[in-house]
Design a protein that fits this description.
The two termini are 33 Å apart. The chain is mostly helical. The C terminus is likely disordered. It has one domain.
Length: 296
Amino acid sequence: MTTRSRAELALFSTTFIWGSTFVVVKAGTENISPSLFISLRFGIGALIFGLLLFNKLKHIHFRTVKKGIILGIMLGVGILLQNYGIYQTTASKSAFITGLMVIFTPIAQLVLERRPPKIGNIVGIFVVMCGLFLLTSPSGSEVNYGDILVLISAFIFGVYIVYLDIYSKDENVMQLAFIQVAVTTTIAAVAVPFENIIFMPTTQLLLSLLYMGICATVFSTYVQTRYQKDTTPTRAVIIFTIEPVITAVLAYFVLGEILGFSGIIGAVLIISGILISEFMDLILRKLGIKLLAAEE
């Protein structure tokens, strides 16, 4: 298995966890306000990272701290805006708008790294966008405040993915992940006093916080920070777009939500788009070699 294949398989594992968080959040966060939930979730993650790095915290290089703060600000602001936006728009529209980071990421990569996407990536992005539309079936053509917040968060996530690709090279992965999580915790905690605070602890809520803190924060942040640099930001974000497919499948089995015919077609298109992005350029190169050989 190549380094890139191993990295993309690891990123897929984080995408599966992100997809499962919808079901977890749906079951356990009705008794907590959004910023408080985010601050506690990432606070658990920061505590775990801190314990793992206890003897190494004083040796963190200033360069790593600076990069971690920049990444943490983008991650924290993006997550907050996304959560507040979801509360003010429909779930289908928010899912579709969040998926637009599949467009923002290659644009950001082109601007920041001067790395244009390959033809396979471009075709894959188009197919994935069609699949996202069918899977989420965003209803309502009117644009509301929540839509704008989610759109801004999608743009931030697209830029974040590119900066993570740039900043994670030659850095201690655990330290960089810890700083991101700590900064996100701080941003969410600052926002808590400005919302209607709700906190009614239940077993479901506590289990939800533990799952989100350990799996969706510690594991996912570490894996993304560690492995994304071994592929391209465009390929990574296309892999991430399989999240709504995973969410829809889990919601069907756990919550009894119906996917529908258009949703099934959308899911197939998303998976097809990922495969196109992954293999189209390789196939074209092989066809090109055969054509050249035939001409000779």
